Amino acid sequence: MGNIKSKKLTVLLVDDEDRFREALSRQLSVRGFNVLSAANGEDAVKMVHNNAIDVTILDQKMPGMGGTQTFNEIKKIDPLIEIIMLTGQATVDDALEIMKQGAFDYIMKPMTIDELLFKIEDAYTRKVLMEKKNQKK
Amino acid sequence: MERIKKIIRRIFQKPDDLTASDVEELRLDFKSRYHNFKLLLTANNKALEIMADMERALHGSSAFGMSFIRAGCTAASVNVFNMIKNLKQLAPEKYLSLDEKFNEIRLNIDTIFNQKKEIRDTRLVLTLEDVNKDMADIVGSKMANIGEIKNVLGISTPEGFVITSAAYETFVSENNLQTEIDRLFQTAGGDNLQEFDILSAQIQQYIINADMPDSLADAINRAWKKLESKSEFGKQTMVALRSSAIGEDFQDSSFAGQYRSILNASVENIFHSYKEVLAGKYSVQAISYRLNRGFKDEDISMCVGCMDMVAAEAGGVIYSHSPVDMDDDSIFINSVWGLPKSVVDGSDSNDQFVVSRKPAIKLVSEDVRTKKIKLTCFSKSGLQREILPEDLQNAPSITKEQVLKLAGIAITLEGYYSSPQDIEWAITKDGLIYILQCRPMQQIKRDVKNLYPASAKANNGSIIIKGGITASPGSAYGKVFLAEKRADILAFPQNAVLVVKQALPVWASLLSRASAIISEKGGFAGHLANVAREFSVPAIFGVENAMAILRDENTITVDADSLAVYKGKIESLLTKKTVKKNLMHGSPVYETLKKVSGFIVPLNLLDPDSNDFKPANCKTLHDITRFIHEKSVIEMFDFGREHKFSERAGKQLFYHAPMKWWILNLDDGFKKEIKSKYVRLENIESIPMLAFWEGFAAIPWDGPPPIDGKGFMSVMFQSTTNPALIPGVRSKYVDRNYFMVSKNYCNLSSRLGYHFATMEALVSDRAFENYVSFQFKGGAADYNRRFRRIQFITDILEGYDFRVDVNEDNLIARVEGYDKKFMEKRLKILGYLLLHTRQLDMIMTNRKKVEYYRLKIQKDIEKIINQILVRDENVCLDLT
């Protein structure tokens, strides 16, 4: 349903599991995304400072700066960046808490690459619409 | 306030009054709404998929674990939350009470998940003297039984202590292990053995690397000192650490050999050995066993019995009844030289003595096998395999007097526990007998009449192997798979016959996939035999040279009752094929899913026209999705009208067809912008709508079927008693048919006379995203006729791959994940059925007429989907 391929999207991938992050990063690059990746929250925040990110895929459970804190830091820098939470551990409360804070969606591992791909596209559509709305104001 | 003013201004504004900037703003507004609507639909689709998965799990025979349930609940909740969020974007402040309902349902689900284990005894270690059979929840059933035997029955068991369930909980919580274990399970997902292999290694590593809590280390040290003071070996005391998990005795589960025992451990390695036994909870076979039996990981606390090591001259296992024939009350004593390990792990052959109990205890048969190895304790720690001198290899490992003594103990224990028992024992050089373990045995009712069918004799020519012992009864066929090493587990195909050298417990992880097992070694008292019987997998053990005789990939039939293996598939032997039990049914995991899904899956909100169709009546997440879906469609339609925004207002379809059809273009559903009130079919771009319409318009409707007097009276009666059929109570959308379309999406709300239907479809080149859903209800006839018509439509739809749920006279059909062509054909079928099943409820009690319409409909559908019949453009009439 989405059709937003006019621009190369920049996706920031944040996950402490190296194998998972590298594999996903490769797959997203093959599908035409500009992919940046970070192994922890601190690095992710630095990357958001220095790059124009469209969509962030963020692991909920990471050592050091956890998913929720990283989420808040990214939103502080740029509230329009859409963030898709990714998790290997699913509790309803954790998921809904971060959704209420404005996460675009909450996906559980393992997921299919297509499922993630469409979520990224949907998240980007929302970002574009929000930007246009903000311009109107 | 500003927003409300704007809305009011727009309502009273003529379309021509809109400025270019207004139009641009409305376009953006509409785009946002359409985006929210799409997200809502995606979430709805995903939530329905999860609900269908849950239903399939409940009604199917596949195994599933808690991670499946947790993931399902979280995903369903997240998607319903997303639906509420997006509906609020479409209609701010209109449906606020949905939040309250959603939270209420969520709390109900949480309560089920958060039922915590109660620890009624916080002692970390208990000496065996303090243990009895009522303490299974503190020390596990195995050690509770040993305590009872020692303290109440006065039968010899080794001295020792038990590291309790409270100790396990302390170890797990102080190292924060459960969170990490749950995360690893969740990430692994599914029931793939390769995933289990990695998962098992990761979790076991976490446990081995975890710290021993100080309180637990102190308690174990104190208990060890006490044991040393009692043991004849004093400072040289060595122990056997035996797993004794909580919940092992649940629902006829054997847990045989699924967990780990460490024999001959010294004080220096007691902590490491304890962690090894705990880690054994996550061996591949234990994970696989729990998954297939529906046990929750977190319910199983691993208690560990530490018992003085017995210097066994001989040892083995007694079955106080035959495990493969419930009616046979003989006592079966399996025995080897040295420690009994090889009897239970199936790694070597063992002697078997059969004792009858009536009129008096008497040895009735002895089968003395060649035993090459004697397992004994190594002087420091660990075990050693002694090669037996030849004269002992073929000698009986116990005397006749010892056989009878053991049989006497078995009868005492069986009598005390009032059920047949599986007893592990050891005898010292001095002839002292120690009971090491005692638990209820699993038994199977054997179909004696059918043991040796005549047909089996007729197939004697195709016998490849004869002999061995029946480890698990029944017959089955499959392709041979010779497994030599552990890694072969990963390559094992579904329904193959597992052929191995030794009947080791590690092969148990294949029992949910194997059709039968053949092993060169092992007896029916081993762990693998136990679990094979539990999983109803036929097994023959003790088959000499099986690995050399049988060839990979060859199809064979295994008849465990007549101890024969046949070449090829012998149908006549498979008539007594064992039906595999659904081991999930009634298990803790199954019951959790049943409870949880009760707040997710049932649909109670059926009739959108009813006054009860409101958030307050949502009892499940499904109800909320149903409510939101219905309201979102209405909210999307209202936008164009309320804002007098011609581009996004509904257009009427120019077509000579029954009823009026309105179409709202959501995005790219029209080929060009339509300014007038009407739209022609050739200007429609929507793939699903065009497919649906092709089916709808393919064959003209013959008109209502002729009804008999009874059918007519039924309609008259229903019209006066059924409020849903009274025009005055219908909603404003009742007498029209609405399509909402984009290029790949179509939603239809239709009322044709008394029939109410909704159809929704997403059809694009992304097959996995495609779906068609169809809901149908109503009719003017009485309930019986309406119900029969629903059954009539169900039969047709199921014949074309739809998954159909019927609730009273309400039908919900769904098909998903197929390619575009396939989906278009299904839409054509729905289009045809919507028109042609109208008023068929009237004739549903007339068998001949029903048959006539069934044949006609089948023929028509085949013509339509095979494109024998192409829509005649001449029937399209311009209504202007």
What does this molecule look like?
The complex is a heterodimer of chains A (137) and B (880). Chain A is globular and about 40 Å long. Chain A is of the alpha/beta class. Chain A has helices at 18-30, 41-50, 67-77, 92-100, 113-136, and strands at residues 10-14, 34-38, 55-59, 82-87, 105-108. Chain B is of the alpha+beta class and 880 residues long. Chain B has five domains: 2-115 and 594-624, no CATH class; 125-308, ATP-grasp fold, A domain (Dna Ligase, domain 1, 2-Layer Sandwich), CATH 3.30.1490.20; 314-440, ATP-grasp fold, B domain (D-amino Acid Aminotransferase, Chain A, domain 1, 2-Layer Sandwich), CATH 3.30.470.20; 448-569, 3-Layer(bba) Sandwich (Glucose Oxidase, domain 1); 686-875, no CATH class. Chain B has 24 helices and 30 strands. In chain B, the strands form five sheets. In chain B, strands 24-22-23-25-26-27-28-30-29 form a nine-stranded mixed beta sheet, covered by helices on one side. Chain B has an eight-stranded mixed beta sheet with strand order 14-21-20-16-17-18-19-15. A six-stranded antiparallel beta sheet of chain B has the order 9-8-7-6-12-13. In chain B, α2 (20-59) packs antiparallel against α3 (66-90), α3 (66-90) runs antiparallel to α4 and α8 packs antiparallel against α10 (270-279). Chain B starts with a helix and ends in a 15-residue tail after the last helix. At the A-B interface, α4, β5 and α5 of A face α2, α3, α4 and α7 of B.
